[in-house]
Amino acid sequence: MRKLSHDEISKNRSTLENIDLVKKLPVTVLLNSIRSSYNVGSIFRTSDGAMIEKLILCGYTPHPPLNDSREGNKDVLKTALGSTESVKWEYIKSPIEAIRNLKEKGIRICALELTENSKPYYITEQYNFPMCLVVGNEITGVSQEVLNLCDYSIEIPQYGIKQSLNVAVAYGIAIFELRKIFDKKQFTTSQP
Asked: CA distances (Å), 135 to each of 14, 68, 170, in order?
């Protein structure tokens, strides 16, 4: 077994010039009041890896500089390692406004949160594409006000003594499961 070089890996990857031609995972991700710029940067990188449709940053979530201005958090850029260029994103202060806009377009809203009705993240019949995955604050999670607008919720079962995972880690698990489910559906529907 030989490890691939950076050049060999890059040969099969998209570029910024052709990123709009890549088939995107029809998932918009809404980050609501994430505290850590490092978590946000990590979520940008993971979003690039899964090639999601769009990130919406809400509340006090740190965001990259807007339109070449100085307003924004440069620590997000450090951790994102360039993925702020390959992942479409926007900042909307109110998560309620953002969710209502998405619902008007017929997009179902799914919270990544422990609720009385949440299902394990790998239960396929709970996913409808296109969708919006709502990811909440590191300490308080997705607020009840936002949950009231969600169509359903998914959770990552915990088997130890802690109640949850780091937000960027949990997001990575959930988004790549969604990618797997979407790709599997695409593969099975394209078969004769």
From this structure: 26, 27, 9
Residue with tokens 């019949």: 125
Domains and CATH numbers, the chain: 27-190 (3.40.1280.10)
Contact at 8 Å (CB) between 120 and 155?
Answer: yes
Retrieve residue 142's tokens. Answer: 């997705």
Average pLDDT over residues 105-132: 87
Nearest Cα to Cα of residue 56 among 133, 126, 130 = 133
Residues 127, 146: Cα–Cα separation, whole Å: 19
Q: What is the pLDDT of residues 176-186, one digit of tens each?
A: 999 999 888 76
Tokens 């958090």: give the residue: 73
Provide the b/e sequence for 81-105 (b: ≥16 CB within 10 Å): eebbebbbbebeeebbebbeebeee
Are the C-beta atoms of 174 and 121 separated by less than 8 Å?
A: yes
* CA–CA gap between residue 69 and residue 82 (Å, rounded): 17
- Dig out the tokens for 158 from the structure: 């915990």
Can you name the residues that pair with 22 across neighbouring β-strands?
Answer: none
Question: pLDDT digits over 125-159, tens only?
Answer: 546 789 999 999 999 999 999 999 999 999 998 89
Comparing C-alpha atoms, which of 11, 29, 23 is closest to residue 109? 29
